[in-house]
């Protein structure tokens, strides 16, 4: 079966992306599957640049089709923070809980609602063939964590139109409304068409 | 009908691209059709960068989907010249004939065959959604012009597997083997899928 690398070690992301592509005849392998040990420096200034940097580096190493993303939370009252630093908001090796705490501390002095969006840049990379698509979901940040599913800021984020956080929503629902779903869905037609 | 801008004023290119997409329900309009008077500075270092620069500038101005390309001839014995400078090899406002003459002069001191390829970077641009794909056709440069169709270096370029120049080949044949066909064909699935 055709194999594609998803340039991530985040098992939560890997699972989401496999779920999105489960109707395609593709084996999506992760960086853990290929035992990738390197460190990729995400030196870009945008989600898209960072996603492309990851994808290009992995393509150069393994020479098979790569998909990648860079995602994060963009909070209005914080002028877009944590943005591309979402995963390392409280430091290079910060855990989700530490990032969430930092976010709540920063938001303490602001009135509710804390409008925010989850943003994702999804990319496809195959040498000179490249594709990039955005996806987002809007919502609010609440003042304490709720729910145990998902990862990242999911326990703090309630998408518009729902009364549950991303960490409380049923998996099938989260994965039809998420920023990552919106972005990666646009990749599907490319994955379908590139069959060589 | 859905309208897309092809960011070019080159009527030869416009015709080729319309031919490639003639099975899609799309109206492809050119920069002449929108009466675009500006000058786009192709300041990139690669075909892809130049194509993206053109597409982004036109998208910013008209806010509808844009396709664009940057194409050129890459000659082995000339270390890749004329490359991204193909259209202005003999000067900013050079005519095809002047560019061709300059090429032949440069190649005089080299033995045949003069291996070359036509390269095309085709791009799709819709804000944060971007796509870029390469296309190429390999062949040789001959020592005098033959044929009156096409444009650019077509009268000097014989694609591998044929004994006619691009300017002698039947239109339907040229447009199934050309660099531009190869690149823009990859765009078709994106144009098909983006229906909003």
Secondary-structure map with pairings?
2 copies of one chain form a homodimer.
Chain A: E1 3-6, H1 11-20, E2 27-30, H2 47-62, E3 66-75, H3 96-107, E4 114-126, E5 129-141, E6 157-159, H4 171-177, H5 179-193
Parallel strand pairs in A: 1-2, 1-3
Antiparallel strand pairs in A: 3-4, 4-5, 5-6
Quick summary:
2 copies of one chain form a homodimer. Chain A is α/β, with parallel strands linked by helices and 196 residues long.
Provide a descriptive summary of the structure in words.
The structure is a homodimer of 196-residue chains. In chain A, strand 1, helix 1 and strand 2 (27-30) form a beta-alpha-beta unit. The first copy, chain A, has a single domain, classed as Alpha-Beta Complex (Maf protein), CATH 3.90.950. The first copy, chain A, contains five helices and six strands. Chain A has helices spanning 11-20, 47-62, 96-107, 171-177, 179-193, and strands spanning 3-6, 27-30, 66-75, 114-126, 129-141, 157-159. Chain A is of the alpha/beta class. A six-stranded mixed sheet of chain A has the order 2-1-3-4-5-6, sandwiched between helices. The interface between A and B is medium-sized, with 16 and 16 residues.
